[in-house]
Design a protein that fits this description.
Helices cover 21% and strands 25% of the residues. It is flat, with a radius of gyration of 19 Å.
């Protein structure tokens, strides 16, 4: 059975399951299968960081753009992957089962462009040789970011802080 066939079968079964739990389980299964499908570059281009694949099967975690010669992906380090044919959204970040809300769900939209923010951590993510982990939030779209913080919560609070601090006129 292909992913497309599984999605079609789950969608057809949605009408047969009347309990909220079964319906939600089917919807989550459909969403999980759809998130793991490759999307042809010619169909549409993504916004933000994605997994890119060229015609030989080489992959790069990066940003995809159209060029005069085809589709090119590039990452933060300047590595480029030419001849990209498909891309896939990133999976959700790992989260312990007992956490009530993922850190990424606590982030407000980017104050500059409305894009999605992402939490970064150093030295873990960047292999830097420093004593303390440093966290920041950066927009996947416009690259706007917070300053460095020493906890995820501080970085989230800095990202979510707005000039009006929640006050309304």
């Amino acid at each position: 059975m292909t992913k497309e066939e599984a999605i079609a079968r789950l969608q057809a079964d949605l009408g047969w399951h009347h309990s909220d739990g079964n319906r939600k389980a089917h919807e989550m299964g459909i969403q999980a299968l759809e998130r793991t499908k490759w999307i042809p570059c010619s169909e549409r281009l993504p916004e933000g960081l994605v997994i890119c694949c060229d015609k030989e099967g080489n992959m790069l975690l990066g940003y995809l753009r159209r060029s005069a010669t085809g589709y090119i992906a590039h990452d933060y380090a300047g590595t480029e992957l030419y001849g990209c044919v498909a891309w896939m959204p990133l999976p959700d970040a790992y989260c312990k089962e007992n956490e009530k809300m993922k850190y990424s769900e606590r982030l407000k939209p980017c104050p500059f462009c409305g894009g999605k923010g992402e939490i970064y951590q150093a030295p873990t993510m960047l292999n830097l040789k420093i004593d303390d982990d440093v966290y920041w939030v950066q927009c996947r779209n416009c690259f706007g970011r917070t300053g460095n913080s020493y906890s995820k919560i501080e970085a989230i609070n800095a990202w979510n802080r707005r000039t009006d601090n929640g006050k309304s006129d």
